[in-house]
């Protein structure tokens, strides 16, 4: 244990550190929670203390810091902007998979894409919170399967995430071979390449449909849209209600008239936004 907390009279959070490890104090945790919220909009409760400790302990080791107080000082120091990127990367949870919540992709393939107006042949889809890329690649596979004339369209998928490391991994398009088992066999044959070392890679023609970018949803959005479809699934559960309202209002502003929004299974727009009609199973259509 470091003696820093006793030197400053700081109250240590119990059960946060094993023998030989540093402690995270209540003051440290509060400072980190505030910096995470400022940087990403993510609101961390006391129940996330162990998660914060475990993930940031690795950052302390990498930086050679002896305490969480020193880490907090670094976040607030002249190099704090760079470290806040690492902070957000460490804290964000990246639970995803190919064709997760499969009913969304079924609706996309059978209802939404076939009904697109052929005039202009323009299609824009945004995967907001793309994590390691399984979602946008699932979207692109669905588009390729449901639209035999896709090559004749001006079709693009924008995939963004606040975690820069996840964006880089997603852009590479390489995964353990067992992770692509959730991809339907016909799509796997068409769009997934077996690589050496039990790895699988997304086919170049699939990757060419997707642009990967690092983006903080609470910051400026450089894209102008309009988007026909936005996927933002299992992201807003980490935001408070005012942040959710503002975010869904921005989504509505960037969607084309009648555009669709897909959210996560534990999320809802009830009493959050009146700009969408609920179509069922966390699928929404823009009203205004």
TrEMBL record:
EC number, UniProt record: 2.1.1.80
Role: Methylation of the membrane-bound methyl-accepting chemotaxis proteins (MCP) to form gamma-glutamyl methyl ester residues in MCP.
Enzyme class: transferase
A single BP term in Gene Ontology: methylation
Pfam families listed in its UniProt record: CheR (PF01739), CheR_N (PF03705)
Catalytic activity: L-glutamyl-[protein] + S-adenosyl-L-methionine = [protein]-L-glutamate 5-O-methyl ester + S-adenosyl-L-homocysteine
Alphabetical keyword list: Methyltransferase, S-adenosyl-L-methionine, Transferase
SUPFAM superfamilies cross-referenced by the UniProt entry: Chemotaxis receptor methyltransferase CheR, N-terminal domain, S-adenosyl-L-methionine-dependent methyltransferases
PANTHER family per UniProt: CHEMOTAXIS PROTEIN METHYLTRANSFERASE
Listed name of the protein: Chemotaxis protein methyltransferase
Cited InterPro entries: Bact_Chemotaxis_MeTrfase, Chemotaxis_MeTrfase_CheR, CheR_C, CheR_MeTrfase, CheR_N, CheR_N_sf, SAM-dependent_MTases_sf
Record organism: Muricoccus nepalensis
Stretches assigned to the CheR-type methyltransferase domain: 17-288
MF annotations from Gene Ontology: protein-glutamate O-methyltransferase activity
């Amino acid at each position: 244990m470091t003696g820093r907390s006793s030197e400053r009279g700081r109250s240590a959070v119990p059960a946060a550190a094993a023998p030989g490890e540093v402690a995270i104090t209540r003051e440290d945790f509060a400072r980190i929670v505030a910096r995470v919220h400022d940087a990403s909009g993510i609101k961390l409760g006391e129940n996330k203390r162990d998660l914060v400790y475990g993930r940031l302990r690795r950052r302390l080791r990498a930086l050679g810091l002896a305490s969480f107080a020193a880490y907090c000082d670094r976040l607030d120091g002249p190099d704090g902007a760079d470290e806040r990127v690492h902070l957000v990367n460490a804290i964000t949870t990246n639970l995803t998979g190919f064709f997760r919540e499969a009913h969304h992709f079924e609706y996309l393939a059978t209802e939404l894409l076939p009904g697109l107006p052929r005039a202009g042949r323009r299609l824009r889809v945004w995967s907001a919170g793309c994590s390691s890329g399984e979602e946008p690649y699932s979207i692109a596979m669905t588009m390729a399967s449901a639209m035999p004339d896709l090559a004749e369209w001006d079709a693009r998928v924008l995939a963004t995430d606040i975690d820069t490391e996840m964006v880089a991994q997603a852009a590479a398009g390489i995964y353990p071979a067992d992770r692509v088992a959730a991809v339907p066999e016909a799509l796997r044959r068409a769009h997934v390449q077996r690589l050496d070392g039990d790895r699988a890679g997304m086919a170049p023609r699939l990757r060419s449909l997707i642009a990967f970018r690092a983006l903080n949803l609470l910051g400026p959005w450089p894209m102008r849209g309009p988007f026909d479809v936005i996927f933002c699934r299992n992201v807003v559960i980490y935001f408070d209600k005012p942040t959710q309202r503002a975010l869904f209002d921005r989504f509505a502003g960037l969607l084309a008239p009648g555009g669709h929004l897909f959210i996560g299974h534990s999320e809802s727009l009830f009493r959050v936004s009146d700009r969408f009609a609920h179509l069922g199973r966390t699928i929404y259509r823009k009203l205004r």
